[in-house]
Amino acid sequence: MSSEYLPGLAGVPATKSNISSIDGEKGILAYRGYDIAELVEKSNFEETSLLLLDGNLPTQHELTDFDCQLREERRLKYKIRTIMKNLPTAGHPMEMLQTAIASLGMFYGGQEVLSDGIDGNDVDYIHSMSVKIISRMATIVAMWEHIRHGYDPIEPRDDLSHAANFLYMLDGKEPDPLAVKIMDACLVLHAEHTINASTFAAMVCASTLASPFLVVAAAIGTLAGPLHGGANQRVVDMLEEIGGPENVQGWLDKRLASKKVVWGMGHREYKTKDPRANVLQKLMVEWGETHGNLSQQFETALKLEEACEQALGPKGVYPNVDYYSGILYREMGIKPDQFTAIFAISRVAGWLAHWREQLSDNRIFRPTQIYTGEELRGYVDMSKR
Q: How far apart are CA 130 and CA 128, in angstroms?
C-alpha cells in the first residue's frame, strides 16, 4: 500500500462512479453519458435530476410523475418556517440553508431502513427523500429572501416549473421567460460535476448511513467555503471593484502583475474552455440583445472577458461557469449572497445521486494519515514544566 502523501487528495481516486465524467482535454462534461450541452438544449432540470438519480432518461410517464411529485412537495412545514424566522437575519444564506435542511430530517424519519445495499423499502425511501429534498431546497432559499427582510414568504405555485417557481417565489412576479430559460440552464449545468469537495463530503457522510438530510447538510457546509462554491459571488465583487469598462485594462494589468486571481477565470479540470461556460456565454449574449439597457457591471464583464481572452487565452485560461452565472444572476436581480445557495439547489441532485450510489456498494470511509508529531514520551508533572 502506498504511503505517499498527496495534499488535498489531488488526483487520488476515491470511488468508482457512473454518474458523470469530465474530459478536460476536449472540454466535455457528461451526465450518465449525455453531453451537458445537449442536455441544456433538449432537457430541463426536472428531467436531468431524474437522469442523475436513476441512471437513464425517463419515459414521459416517469418524468410526468416525478415532476408532479416535485410540485406536490414544495410546501414547507410551519415549524421549519418558525426556525428560519428565528435565525439571525444577517447570517449567510448558506448557513441558513444548512440549518433548515438538517432540521427537516427531524420530521422525516425512516433512515433505519438503510442497509449496506439497496433493496426493498430502501428504494422507496431513497426516492421519497430525494424528491422532498430537491423540491424543498428551492423553497427554503426563496423564502429566506423574504424572511430575512421581515416579510412573510411567498407561497409556491404548482403550475410552474422548478426554475420558474423559484424565480416567482423570489419576487412574487410572473417570471420573465428568458430568465426562466437561463435559470433552468444554470440548474442543469450546476447539477453535477464528478467528485469535488462537497460531493466527497456527502459521500463520506453517506458511508456512515446517516440520514439524507444530514448528508446534504454536510455537502452544503462544504460548498459554502469560498474555495468551492463562492466563486460566482466573488466575480460580482470583483466587477464592483473594477468600477466600469473603462477601468478594465488597467485593473487587469495590475492584477496579473501581482499574480492575483481573476475570479471566474480558468478551471482545474479543463485544459480548454469550461463547456458550461460556453452555454452561459450564449445566454448572456441573448440576455443583452433582448434587454438592451445593460447595467454598467454587465458592460464591465463583457470588457473584462475580452481583455482576459487576449491576455490569458493563449495560456489556456478561459472564463468558467462561475463567471457567467454570477453576472446573469445579478442582471436578473438576485442578491449576490444568494448565488451559492442557488448553486446548492442545483447540485443537490448530484449529491443525492452519489448518496444512492454510495449506499449501493457501501463501505465506510476510513483513510489513514502520516503522523508528524512527537515520539512517545512520558507525562511531565505541572511543577516541572
A: 5
Q: Are 127 and 372 in contact (CB under 8 A)?
A: no
CB within 8 A of 13, min separation 6: which ones?
A: none
253 is a catalytic site residue:
no
The stretches of the chain forming alpha helices (DSSP H) are 36-42, 45-54, 60-72, 78-85, 93-104, 121-147, 162-171, 177-189, 197-206, 212-223, 231-242, 248-257, 275-291, 296-312, 321-331, 339-360
Catalytic residue among 67, 122, 274, 322: 322
- Fill in the amino acid letter for 213: F
Residue 267 designated active-site: yes
CA pair distance 266, 272, nearest whole angstrom: 9
pLDDT of residue 121: 58
148/165 Cα distance (integer angstroms): 19
Q: In the numeric block, which cell numbers belong to residue 198?
A: 462537497
Q: Which of 193, 267, 274, 354 is catalytic?
A: 267
Residue boundaries of the structural domains of the chain: 18-225+337-360, 231-331
Q: Is 267 helix (H, G, I), strand (E, B) or coil?
A: coil
CA neighbor of 19 nearest in space, from 189, 137, 191, 198 = 191
Q: Which amino acid is at 259?
A: K
**pLDDT for 23-52, tens place per residue?**
988 889 999 999 999 999 999 999 999 999
CATH pick for 231-331 out of 1.10.230.10, 3.40.50.12780, 3.20.20.70, 4.10.280.10 = 1.10.230.10
C-alpha 133/C-alpha 128 separation (Å) is: 9
Query: How much of the chain exceeds pLDDT 90, in percent?
Result: 67
Tell me the pTM: 0.92
